[in-house]
Design a protein that fits this description.
Elements lengths: L1 H15 L4 H45 L3 E2 L1 H15 L8 E9 L5 E9 L22 E11 L11 E9 L8 E2 L3
Parallel strand pairs: 1-6
Antiparallel strand pairs: 2-3, 2-4, 4-5
Helix pairs in contact: 2-3
């Protein structure tokens, strides 16, 4: 009987004791909070990689559209600028292509010239689909493309690589068409 009373007092004393509750709550919540933290960090890095891909496509197209003529060497230098924009992310998965698209009198769009780094250049004279509101008959546009495959550094939440594809269309600024001397 006395043993039962002592057990009840000990048991009720343990129930009333709240000294380890904070440690227990922390032990239960810490893994969830760490998962949320790493998940947000991975998501943020992925969004930043996507934005850099878009900025790369926009910039390489804009640099070509600012001149009336270009060369293969100049396009290669422009591609190195694209690599610099993506840095500090790895530049190996970055693929770029710049294409001059012209529309004839009927509005049919074809490739005038194309250069690529990682992406194959489009064949001269091949048909390209461009929205009618972007190019009118007897006009041209520069089509700049950037593809990037983002691989998360940690991989706790995002397990697989994520591909990003961006395409920008820019009108030539100094002439009706940007020509490539040796493309």
């Amino acid at each position: 009987m006395q043993l039962m009373r002592r057990s009840r007092r000990t048991l009720s004393g343990l129930v009333a004791d709240a000294s380890g509750v904070a440690a227990l709550e922390f032990a239960l919540l810490a893994p969830i909070l760490c998962l949320l933290y790493f998940g947000m960090a991975e998501l943020t890095q992925g969004v930043m990689a996507e934005r850099r891909t878009a900025h790369t496509a926009s910039t390489i197209g804009d640099l070509v559209a600012q001149s009336s003529t270009t060369t293969q060497a100049q396009v290669t230098q422009i591609f190195s600028i694209g690599d610099a924009i993506v840095y500090p992310y790895p530049t190996t998965p970055l693929k770029m292509r710049i294409t001059s698209v012209v529309a004839d009198a009927q509005g049919k769009t074809t490739v005038a010239w194309s250069q690529g780094q990682g992406l194959a250049a489009l064949a001269k004279g091949s048909s390209v689909s461009v929205s009618a509101n972007l190019i009118a008959a007897n006009q041209s546009v520069i089509m700049a493309e950037a593809d990037y495959t983002y691989t998360p550094a940690v991989g706790y939440v995002m397990k697989a690589s994520v591909p990003f594809n961006e395409t920008y269309y820019l009108r030539p600024r100094l002439s009706d068409q940007v020509t490539c001397a040796d493309c």
